[in-house]
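Q: How would the structure tokens look for this protein?
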Amino acid sequence: MMLSDEEYMRRCIELAGLAAGNTDVPVGAVVVKNDSGEIIGEGFNRREADKSPIAHAEIIAIDNASKRLGGWRLIGCTLYVTLEPCAMCAGAIVNSRIDRVVFGADDPRFGACGSAFELFSLGLNHTPILEKGVLKDECARLMKDFFKELRKTR
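A: Here is the predicted structure in token form.
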């Protein structure tokens, strides 16, 4: 069943809450098959929990989707994520051939989809369609609340 961009982003927000519960930055992501609307991969930040610099929500969701489909090409898929992807995640998006990326909040410090820089405009072998700002305020509030609470405990 096809859901709206906002409905998929709400699932990402739920996943981001799981990350925050692990004291990880609250970012959630899902990969959706465009033809069926089925979520085939999910992830949330696990850098602190896994003690791994690559355990970003997008990387986990992309890996799960690839395993589910039995291949690394995610042609015909959309990635939804609460926060603008960083350079590492944007590179994984290009390499996995994801058709479309939908994100909520901008990341002015590390965002590789237009905020800090635009990786997809570099003439690489694949350029996904980019949709910005879906449930932007809710996604940004996740980050603000998390870091406000983190400052209280330090």
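The radius of gyration is 14 Å.

The helical segments are 5-21, 47-50, 57-69, 87-96, 136-153.

Upvote if useful.
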